[in-house]
Amino acid sequence: MGRCLIIAGFIAVWLTGVQAAGSSQAGGPSPYSAEQVVTFGKQVEHALAAQHAYVAIVARKGRAGDELPKGFEYTHIGIAVYSTIKLRDGRELPGYAIHSLYQKPTDTARSYLISDFPVDFFSGVAELKAGVLIPNTELQQRLWQIMQSDIPQKLHNPRYSIIANPYQTRFQNCTSHTLDILVAAIYQTENIQQIKANERAYFKAQEVRVNPLKLLLGTVFVPDIALSDQDEHVVTATYETITRFLVENHLVRQQLTLMPAAIAF
Length: 265
Hints:
Layout (H helix, E strand, L loop, with lengths): L6 H9 L18 H17 L4 E7 L14 E11 L5 E13 L2 E10 L1 H4 L5 E9 L1 H11 L3 H4 L19 H14 L4 H11 L3 E2 L4 H10 L13 E2 L2 H10 L3 E8 L2 E3 L1
Helix pairs in contact: 4-6, 6-7
C-alpha cells in the first residue's frame, strides 16, 4: 500500500531486496491495530462532516517519511464523496466512500477503480496521517456530479506506472487519475485531450530526482515502472502538486492535516 508515485522510495527498497508495498486495496503489515485504524477512519469522516464537505481529496501515507524523497509526503490519494452506504446486513447509513485507483494484485502494471470505506483506505499504512483538501463549493458541486456519472471510468487508463507522466495519456496512476477528474470538473470537459492540454498549460508536475541507472534498472525488472511517457525530465503528479495547483487557483476552501486525535489547519 502507498507505492503509488514514489519511485525514489521504491528504488531504495528494491535495491535492498525488500518488497515495496503497492498501491493496492489490501494493506501490508501495519504498526497499528485494527481498532486504531477504525478509530482514525471515523475521525477522518467526522472531520469532513464538521466542514460540511460533500467531496474532498484525501491522501494517505503508505511509507515512512524517511523512505520518501523530497517533495513527496503522501503516497496514495482518492476522492471522498458523501454517500448513502449500504452495509453487508442491508442497512443504509450516511458516510464517505473514497474513490481511487489501485494496482491489480495479480498484475501490478494494470489498475482498476474501487470505492473504499475510510477504514479500508487507511488499512496497512505506515503512519496514520491524512492530507485533506476540501474544494470550494462550486468545485465540490461539479465533482459530486462527475462522481455520480461514468466520467471517472471514461478517464481511467488501466495501463499503470508508478511515475506516470500527467501530461501524457500512455500511463496513469492514482494521482494522475484524480488530477484528470479535477481538471474535468474545473474546465467542464470529459475530453481527455483537452484535459491534458489544460494540465500542460496550468499544472506544474513534480520532478522525480533519482539516479538514472537505478531508474533504468527499475524499468527493466519491475513491470509497473515505465519511462516511455517521459521526456528529458521525469515528472509525475503528487498530492503536494495538486494542492499547489488548487490553492493557486483559489479552488480550496479548507486544507487539513489529520493525525490520531489531532487536527492541524
